[in-house]
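>> Question from a student workshop board

For tomorrow's exercise we were told to take the sequence and the ligand below, predict the bound structure, and bring the output to class. My setup keeps failing. Could a helper post the expected result so I can at least see what it should look like? The ligand is adenosine-5'-diphosphate.
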Amino acid sequence: GVVGFKAATEVGAGTAEAAENRILVFVRLRPMSRKEEAGSRSCVKIVNKKEVYLTEYASENDYLRLKRVRGRHFCFDSAFPDSTTQAEIYNTSTADLVEGVLQGRNGTVFCYGATGAGKTYTMLGTMESPGVMVLAIKDLFSKVRQRSYDGNHSIQLSYLEIYNETVRDLLSPGRPLHLREDKQGTVAAGLTQYRAYSTDEVMKLLQQGNKNRTTEPTRVNETSSRSHAILQVIVEYRFMDGVSIVTRVGKLSLIDLAGSERALATDQRTQRSIEGANINRSLLALSNCINALVEGKKHIPYRNSKLTQLLKDSLGGSCNTVMIANISPSNLTFGETQNTLHWADRAKEIKTKALTIANEEVLNVPDSETDQAKLLLELQKE
Ligand code: ADP
Ligand code: MG
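>> Workshop helper replied:
Here is what the output should look like for this input. Compare the format with yours to find the bug.
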């Protein structure tokens, strides 16, 4: 027949871009809350567009006694002060990665930080100030509509949670899902794929999904700080490249990680402490993978947790990865902020694999008009 698929094309092989592919790391400082303003002071300063300064002294008294400020500077791809808008965060940290997804390269963005540091605000945001998840989908819609050759495109969403090493569908809550390996990497079997037709519906869908996130038994109205939420977006469209029709598929993963603060294992016999240990397991596994990747180890322990299994092709694979580290300015959370900055600093060293293959199929358009018409008919049937 006229419809014949060629092998995937080489993209970026041997270019500077392919050679230098590392995780981009951004830090976002959130504003002081009213409560913090009353009972604490700031211990973080954004020095310039890339630099964060964390002061070491614990109190005003220490400062007076030491007569000098001892602290530490950290440098990142960007350091965002508390006045930064959601759009600025998206444009600087994620817009290029989303463009990459439209070129057929997978992309992953994750927010890391302690509970209350601003991860969910950054990822989901509010109706008035939508975050990275919504802005990314908006961007995908507008670009794909412009570029698609025959109006054919699809944007599919799935939203899942990892809580206590159990994977659940946030769009259709029910039984836990099993992870299995397939050609695309690790996937959750039976996960809902929701086809989105406009950006407007997405915020509501995700807010509803967030309501399905596991809540702590003691704080029924709050989302658990121990659950990881992962939004996966699969975008597919067709475009004309010279005389060929190219079908391109890209995968974008947007991840709101569980709070990175140390889980308090108060009582070994209670469910809570087991949950704590498991959260440690996922985040600990993440930090172990980061260490192994930074040290260039052959064996990376992805299989140690659900989170790292799912992130496997994002951390070490041929994927563009962005980490947004969220921090609070208050000296009450000095230890957590130091911890977050430490891991963010380390994540800068991770090199991801050089990119060679884009996820696409090329279709040669036949010369004769009748064959072209046949081809279009076949495409429309799909
Ligand atoms: P996390 O998800 O890391 O636990 P949240 O995103 O829920 O933290 O943020 C904690 C609180 O701070 C929320 O009330 C949120 O609205 C607010 N907040 C976080 N970041 C910002 C920001 N950049 N601007 C304004 N408010 C913020
Ligand atoms: Mg949150």
